[in-house]
Amino acid sequence: MTNVLFVCLGNICRSPMAEAIFKDLVLKAGLQNQIQVDSCATSSEEEGHQPHPGAQKVMAAHGLDYSYMHSRPITRQDFDWADYIITMDGQNVFNLNQMAPAQDRHKIHLCLDILPDKQGQEIPDPWYTHRFEYTYQVLMSALPAWLDKIKAAN
Ligand code: 4NP
Q1: Three-state DSSP state, 92
Q2: For strand 108-110 and strand 2-8, is the pairing parallel, antiparallel, or unpaired?
Q3: Is 65 among the catalytic positions?
Q4: pLDDT tens for residues 9-62?
Q5: Domains delineated in the chain
Q6: What is the pLDDT of residues 32-46, one digit of tens each?
Q7: Cα–Cα distance, 129 to 118 (Å, whole number)
Q8: Is 125 a catalytic residue?
Q9: Where is the chain membrane-spanning (predicted)?
Q10: 107 ligand 1 Cβ < 6 A
Q11: Does ligand 1 come within 6 angstroms of the Cβ of 89?
């Protein structure tokens, strides 16, 4: 089993969209018994909240299920559980490195680092930009490559 955890600041915009997209990719690849997917936040600002209405709209438009999702902050168990901690921007990477037990820091990755021509780039926060469909498109440009990497490692 490979466990993949998507993390952003609030767990209401980017990481729930990434979770929903990646679960769909895993299902379509028939790998749901081999890859588990979850998401969480570096803050407890939005704890208990459903995805942002803009994220809900885009997920619905792309046939993705978000009905079960509620924001939650990352815990010590998450760092242990995850094999890949995939996050959205430099601030998330910094915060996660502060929070992670030393032995789990190697699991932390910037999402766009999987694309050779996008290394070091961030996924803009639609909480500020309101560009939810653009966020979906950027995630869709990178997440199939993460699935390929995980498949190749198994
Ligand atoms: P996310 O977006 O990190 O993509 O879920 C945000 C959600 C909430 C806040 C900031 C960003 N906030 O400040 O509450």
Answers
A1: helix
A2: unpaired
A3: no
A4: 999 999 999 999 999 999 999 999 999 999 999 999 999 999 999 999 999 999
A5: 2-153 (3.40.50.2300)
A6: 999 999 999 999 999
A7: 20
A8: yes
A9: none
A10: no
A11: no
